Every structure is written in structure tokens, then in C-alpha cells.
Amino acid sequence: PLLLLWAEYRPARWPAARVVEAVLLLAATIVVSRIVFGGWGGVRPLSFLCIPVVLWASFRFGQLEAAICTVIMSILAVRGTLSGGGVLAGGQNEGLLLLQAFMGVLAVCGLVVGALMREQERVTEGLEHRLLEAQALAHLGSWDWDIVRNEVWWSDEMCRIYDVEPGTRLTIEDFLTRVHPDDRERVRAIV
Q1: Which tens digit of pLDDT belongs to each residue from 105-143?
Q2: pLDDT at residue number 87
Q3: What's the 3-state SS for the chain?
Q4: pLDDT tens figures, 162-188
């Protein structure tokens, strides 16, 4: 799966916060792998700790990152199992077979969740496109107010109706100046 996902990978520029999260994910992957498979956690059954890390990669990043996380865990797990550390250490063949089954299930879980997240993003983008198209056809706009930052977002059609450049940063006061003077106080009281 990693090679197939890598082949279709389209690099995107990540903001700094996303890079920090990716570094934290990598660190968590290594630390959890060492705890579970490298003997840092003793022989306690801690293999379940791998699941949140792979799900984190799937939910926040996607299938490729979940596959990378699983491959890193697999490499460290094989190394730990062969050296006799971790929860699956025992007979060499038995431990490796159990490890293979565990990592297979973990990889499938990560890939399925990543695929579901990608599908959700695709559907959401399609719905947003349809909403904007419907607004343009009906000559209706929509807006959203972030009260904490006092920022108002307008749809493209709302901007066209009020002759405002799409993407312009607006406040609630900017919005209220565009409301008819007879309605302004009533709208202010409602908002």
C-alpha cells in the first residue's frame, strides 16, 4: 500500500502547525513502537498503544501518512521481536507470525479510516460546490460570523449582491452598514 499511495502523492505545502504535528506524530510513532516492541515497556501487553497513533495519522493526515506510520512501526517491531524485546518476543517464528498478523490488522484499520476521511472531504467539497452554484442561480447569499474574532465570511454570491470583492475581510459592523437603515436596529438586536 505504501508504494501505491506514494505513487499518487501530490505534494502540498503544509503550514508550520501541520509540520509540527507531523514531527510529533513521527516521535509518537517511534516512542510507542519502542515501548511496545522494543522492550521499553517490559513484557506488559501494551500493543493497543499502536492503534491511537495510526488513527491519529489517518484522521489528521491521510492514508499515505498512516501507511508510513505503520511501516515505521513494522520495522521497529521486527527489530524488537528479533532481538527478544517487546510483547511478541518468544519463539522467533511464532513472534514474527503474531507480529505480521497484528501489523496487518493495524495497517488495514489505518488505510480504511484514511480512505473514509478522503471520501468525506470529497463529498464535503462537492456539497460546498453545489451550495455555491445554487446560491448563484437563486441570487441568494450566505454569511457566517465568527464572534470571537469579529470576522464575517460571505459567500461569493453574497459578495456579488453587495458589490464586495470576494475574500474581503469584513466585520459585523461592515455587514450592518449594508443593511437598510430602517432595518438596521432590528437586525442588530437579532444578531
Answers
A1: 988 898 899 889 989 988 998 998 898 889 888 888 888
A2: 65
A3: CHHHHHHCCCCCCCCHHHHHHHHHHHHHHHHHHHHHHCCCCCCCCCHHHHHHHHHHHHHHCCHHHHHHHHHHHHHHHHHHHHCCCCCCCCCHHHHHHHHHHHHHHHHHHHHHHHHHHHHHHHHHHHHHHHHHHHHHHHCCCCEEEECCCCEEEECHHHHHHCCCCCCCCECHHHHHHCCCHHHHHHHHHHC
A4: 888 888 888 888 888 888 899 988 988
Q: How many residues would you count in the chain? A: 191
CB within 8 Å of 151: residues ≥ 6 apart? 145, 169, 170, 171
Q: 122-131: which pairs have CB atoms within 8 A and are 24 or more residues apart?
A: 131/155
pTM of the model: 0.64
Distance CA 179, CA 174 (A): 9
